[in-house]
Structures are given as C-alpha cells and as structure tokens.
Amino acid sequence: MLTLFSWPEMFGLADNNPYGLKVFAFLKLCRVPFRHEHVMDASRAPHGQLPYIDDDGRIIGDSDAIIAHLIARHGLPIDAALTPAQRDTDHLLRRMLDDLYWVMSYSRWRDDRFWPAFRDAFLRFHPPVAPQALETARAYNFTRYHAQGIGRLAPDEAFARGIADLEVLSHLVPEKGFLFGPQPCSTDAGLYGFLANILLFEIDTPLKRHLMSRPNLVAHCRAMHGLVTGG
User: Fold this and answer.
1) Domain range for residue 51?
2) Rounded to whole angstroms, how far apart are CA atoms 74 and 71?
3) What residue spans of the chain are helical by DSSP H?
4) pLDDT digits over 1-30, tens only?
5) Please, what's the largest Cα pairwise distance for the chain?
C-alpha cells in the first residue's frame, strides 16, 4: 500500500506543514488508499524534505511531483476537465503559495510574538519532543529565512507579503463551490493545505486575522476540511 510520510499533526490537521496536508487532502479527495506515517526526521526523504511517498517501492518527494505521479499512475480524473487557462492559473497559484509558505513559517518560528504559542502548542500535541529540539530547529530555520531573504525583513514587512498573497487568493476563490467549479481539483487541495494551516491554528497571527476577514477563503477552507476529514 502507498505510504505518505509527513510532519506531525496539530490542531486537528493531518499535517502541520501545508505541503504534507496538500498531499493528504489530494489522496482523500481521490479516494486513494494509503498509510500515513508521521515522522520528525527528514534525513531519509528525497532532498531532505517532507512530504514524500513510498508507492510500492518507488520513493517520490515534492508535493507537486507526488500529485503528478499519482494522477499518471492511477489515471486519476480529478483535473481532467481543467481548461488550458485553468491549468495556467493552477501553476501560478502554486508558485504564489510557495511564497506564502515562507511567511507562514516565519510567523511560527521567527516572530517572537508568536513563537512561544507555537512552541507550547507543539509540545502539548507532541510531549515526547524535547524543548531543546525545537530550539535547535528554530535556530536552523533562522538560517533558512536569512538565506531565502524573508529573515532580513522586519515582521510587518514579512507579513505584508503573505497578506498580499491572501488578498489575491480572495479575488480568485468564488463565494461558493471550489476554485474552478462545484467539484474540487488538485489546486483546491493545495489551497486547503495552506489556508487550514493558518485558519485552524489557534494562534492569532496577522495572516489568520486577514484570512478570517475574507468569508470566501474561510468557506473554502471549511468545505475542504469537511471533505477531507468527513466532518
């Protein structure tokens, strides 16, 4: 059976990382049977990053590569009806979500206003994790943020980037249904991975406040959450 390896769950989400949650949601939407294994060590993953899958011995990393592989191997029709223009929009949205990832991660690990709440919540959900391990991870993330560039920004400047991304999403997501119609596609799984990791986290960041002010984004997230969790 296919196995998905991803980071641990938090706040009722199957993965506290948007890329792992994206793949989880995709598998659920497509009703592909799979095992879900939560790991804290990404050293065995392709490129040292989660998520990845083991599909009958074939190891594939990167959420987009995983989804492309699954669609091709299993003949999944989830995106079959998309037009060329919609596929272009999907591509652009995925790249914008890559930008939003850094702001979301920054809000948890870098900003001193929200780090204590994230740290305490993580330790509450995962008691075996040593507090020092999180401090080590935080220091590692600081180097990543500096190299990427967002770590060189003041908090308000960093959040402005993510808020701008959310605002564009609010212009594209309809008030009812999903991005391209009444049925979700793989793009909706990607949106859910990010929106849920902001909206359903019980940490009141500027990203969450902005998202909550956009009813269509909230409705999309909650509709997807219902489909994915059966609730």
Assistant:
1) 2-74
2) 6
3) 18-30, 63-74, 84-109, 115-125, 131-148, 155-172, 186-199, 206-212, 215-229
4) 899 999 999 999 999 999 999 999 999 999
5) 49
